[in-house]
Amino acid sequence: QVQLVESGGGLVQPGGSLRLSCAASGIIYSIGAMGWYRQAPGKQRELVATITSGGTTNYADSVKGRFTISRDNAKNTVYLQMNSLKPEDTAVYYCNANGVRNSPISPTRRDYWGQGTQVTVSS
Fold this sequence. Notes:
Blueprint: E1 2-7, E2 10-12, E3 18-26, E4 34-39, E5 46-51, E6 57-59, E7 67-72, E8 77-82, E9 91-100, E10 110-113, E11 117-121
Parallel strand pairs: 2-11
Antiparallel strand pairs: 1-3, 3-8, 4-5, 4-9, 5-6, 7-8, 9-10, 9-11
């Protein structure tokens, strides 16, 4: 079994910064893409940013230029640096690990989600 544990959420004023972390633990041979998604009250979960094992990144238009995703493959950890935060960034942020393999022998790949961390941007 694989677990994703997020940290770093909280309350911040508009224009402020936060850094989210997500560490994957368990029996892990490799992870494909890792990413961050968010869900605001009354809205569907949406993609924020993803990063492949090779470092290729993808961002939602709403966060481009303000958020930066990075990854430490040795630690199975993904980060999200969020700058110039806006009230509309308020949401629960979820970490995702895509294409996780538990063994070099088994081709089975699974996806996992973290429990979510609240980010509130308010004055």
